[in-house]
Amino acid sequence: MTRTRLALFGGTSAFYLAIVVAVLLSTWLVTLDWKIMLFRPYQQWPELHAFLDYYVVLGQRGPTAVMVAAWLGWRSWRQHTLRPLLCLGAALLLLNVSVGSVKLGLGRLGPHYATQVGSAELFAGGDIFPSGHTANAVVTWGILAYLATTPRARRYLSALSAVVALGVGLTTVYLGTHWLSDVLLGWAAGLLVLLALPWCEPVLAVAESWILAARDRVRERLRDRRRLVPSLPVASGGPRPGFFPTRPPGPEEPAREPVGVAGGRRTPATGG
């Protein structure tokens, strides 16, 4: 954690807390939420609705996680390291715990389910504060910039992830599925997860070592099993060796000779 990252983490945490307090106290931010909601952007610019319905999928956890995991899995295979996939898993875990707990704790209703004009709609059984779409867009696409290997790639991917996250958040406001304050808190929540990832790096390094050691043990056991399996050569066209040994003749059973043994006696033919 560099000083710059620590300063960003502290500033983002203060911004996060300020948004929560502003909504809890029903300040001007809640009034702005209601003004935008009553303005109904989806009715003002209906021609954008079809495109933004698809664009907002870039903030859905399932599709975005699959796409990013596929890319990071390929990188893990090429670089012979599990760090990219482990970073993605740790980021999504932090996101689910932090955002999910606040959602359930505050229980805010969305604009489409609001019951009283001017109310913050808190503790009413909802789960939209902060915006999960927005926070997920920040984390899922921001992890690509976090794992970039060159400064140039990091700059480009940071700009791209910021544009995608900004667009996803504003799209949810346009569609009327989130208040503006939900989106502001979602941006802050996602950024806090990315800024906290360096603290997880030592744990991820230990997890990677443990997983690779377990993989090596499994491989060694499979090799040992292959060595224990006997491999008997079989002549081409010849009989295959049996799995059970042939029982020797007992004392009451006469020894049997195969027909046509060299040196054996032939029974003289009788004239008929």
TrEMBL record:
Annotated spans, Disordered: 233-272
Pfam families: PAP2
Every Phosphatidic acid phosphatase type 2/haloperoxidase domain range: 85-198
SMART domains linked to this entry: acidPPc (SM00014)
Transmembrane intervals: 7-31, 51-73, 85-106, 128-149, 156-175, 187-213
UniProt entry keywords in alphabetical sequence: Membrane, Transmembrane, Transmembrane helix
SUPFAM superfamilies: Acid phosphatase/Vanadium-dependent haloperoxidase
InterPro entries linked to this entry: PAP2/HPO (IPR000326), PAP2/HPO_sf (IPR036938)
UniProt-listed Gene3D superfamilies: Phosphatidic acid phosphatase type 2/haloperoxidase (1.20.144.10)
Entry protein name: Phosphatase PAP2 family protein
